[in-house]
Amino acid sequence: MNTKYVSNDFQFGGHKWKLVLHPGDNSQRNDKGYVSLYLQIADTEKYANGWKVNVNFKLFVYDQMHKNYLTIQDAGGAVRTFSEKNTELGFEELISLKELKDKSNGYLVNDSCEFGAEVFVYGGHSAKSEILSMIKNPTNDSFTWKFGKFSTLQDTSYESNIQHVGERDWSLLIYPKGNKTSEYVSLYLDLKNCAANRTVYATYTIKILDQLHNRHHKKTASDWFRPSSAVAGNWMKAAVNNWLGSSSSNAIGYSKFISLSELNKATNGFIVKDVISMEVEIQVSMTKFSSN
């Protein structure tokens, strides 16, 4: 299994960066039972030919039991150079899985662990750190939203009641006449009331239920969610697929979830007695905290 997690962008020192985490099951790059973690410079397409960025950085694993950090860096705090041919630097053997799973070390607590980075760019004037918290065995949580009198809905957006799912609050948003096109229903998932300076990585499946044959219309994706209640000034830019055209919402989903012709076809069973039923399954596998 080739699994990796890539953080959303964070900016400092005049550059954009990401963290790339391989949680120990990446057989192509790591077959020795180690977790790998890398710092990656992002959005370099507009840089001049031959560009170079000199960086000193530390990667760490948080000991949640003893409130300490296992810090990994190059000997003597060596300066590393990012370039066109070298956009990702880090450690293939950050920590062994055996050491990570040893309960006495405190790295894995309640099936979650925290990885972080502290970075200084030479020639820049700022440094920033962030912590990635992995959930070892994420659970699948879900909620359902039934909407009556669907044929009478106006050309605007509607939001479900906030649902407490998997220790977080979520809602669904629907544009029954379409958000960016009048030929499709638009459907989005929105994270609510998460702690400040945190983003959440989740795999989600949004469904419109077939109430007659159980042949549901569904789409699955994974992304970083930023809570809509957050203050934008302290957040790293979220990697989102669709914006709702409002700075107060960071909902993610589909502007073309299902065509109106397919939705309204009676034999498909999506609308029965003028009621539409929607469901979303959510699996949160990682959270990220960013320092100011």
Model description:
The structure is a single chain. This protein is mostly beta strands. Helices cover 3% and strands 50% of the residues. It contains two helices and 20 strands. A hairpin with an 8-residue loop joins strand 14 and strand 15 (184-192). Mean pLDDT is 80; it is low at 26-31 and 230-248.
What's the layout of helices and strands?
Elements: E1 5-6, E2 10-12, E3 15-22, E4 34-42, E5 52-63, E6 68-72, E7 80-83, E8 88-96, H1 97-101, E9 112-121, E10 127-135, E11 141-147, E12 158-159, E13 163-165, E14 168-175, E15 184-192, E16 198-208, E17 217-225, E18 252-259, H2 260-264, E19 271-272, E20 275-290
Antiparallel strand pairs: 1-3, 2-3, 3-4, 4-8, 5-6, 5-7, 5-9, 9-10, 10-20, 11-20, 12-14, 13-14, 14-15, 15-18, 16-17, 16-20, 19-20
Largest sheet: 10 strands, antiparallel
Q: What gross morphology would you assign?
A: elongated
Category from helices, strands and their pairing: mainly beta
| Spans of at least 5 consecutive residues with low confidence | 26-31, 230-248
Helix proportion: under 10%
Note the total helix count: 2
Instruction: Report the C-alpha radius of gyration, rounded.
Output: 22 Å
The proportion of residues in beta strands is: over 45%
List key phrases describing it.
3% helix; 20 strands; 5-stranded antiparallel beta sheet; 292 residues; mainly beta; 10-stranded antiparallel beta sheet; 50% strand; 2 helices
